[in-house]
Amino acid sequence: MAEELARSDKRVGVVHGGFASFQTALDGLGIGKVDGALFDLGISSPQIDDGSRGFSFRFDAPLDMRMDTTRGMSAAEWIAVASEQDLHEVIKNYGEERFSRQIVRAIVAQRAESPIDTTRKLAQIVAQNVRTRERGQDPATRTFQAIRIFINRELEEVGAVLPQVMCRLKEGGRLAVIAFHSLEDRIVKQFVKNIRNTSPCRAGRRSEKRICPIRP
């Protein structure tokens, strides 16, 4: 979709990379300062709806979850080698899952018998170990979210890009961030609080730039 838009509109440029490569991408396009930046955090509907990407428990597919399939470990590869403590910390902290300990014990027991290499296998393990269900939410939602965030270093990417944007915004420029869950929201709000009176690139000088956190 983005490539089609770029072909039809010369104002559009497409760069393959994570948020943390923001300044590198601008340099590659020959762009110095920008008037504004909009970041839509998290996963997109097309990624979820493509069962082959391994993001969704609605499809039985290889357990991948990488946004960039050209690098890094897949979710299945990480689950196969991660320590029990690492699994617990990821699911508990990134998924805010109350039953993380039970889920992790079941994952460790299952992987000792056979690989957990599909979305269905992981979803079934979670469903068997979540004792209460949230209304309108699949029991695997939090675990899938947690592992996806970890595999793609989503929170680290957000934390890395925000200072970069402030260094490239023109005076009077705007940064808007769409956050979908509390973990992202917390990072953005803390960043806003920290730079309310001081820009990361202009220590001691008040910035005329504005940041707009947006939560649907």
TrEMBL record:
Gene Ontology terms, MF aspect: rRNA (cytosine-N4-)-methyltransferase activity
EC number: 2.1.1.-, 2.1.1.199
Entries under InterPro entries matching the protein: RsmH, SAM-dep_MeTrfase_MraW_recog, SAM-dependent_MTases_sf
Pfam families: Methyltransf_5
This protein's UniProt keywords: Cytoplasm, Methyltransferase, rRNA processing, S-adenosyl-L-methionine, Transferase
Keyword Glycosyltransferase: no
Ranges annotated as spanning the membrane: none
GO biological process, one term: rRNA base methylation
GO cellular component terms listed in the entry, alphabetical order: cytoplasm
Domain of life assignment: Bacteria
Homology family: Belongs to the methyltransferase superfamily. RsmH family.
Cross-referenced PANTHER family: 12S RRNA N4-METHYLCYTIDINE METHYLTRANSFERASE, S-ADENOSYL-METHYLTRANSFERASE MRAW
Name of the molecule in the record: S-adenosyl-methyltransferase MraW
Organism of provenance: Neisseria gonorrhoeae
Gene from which this protein is expressed: mraW
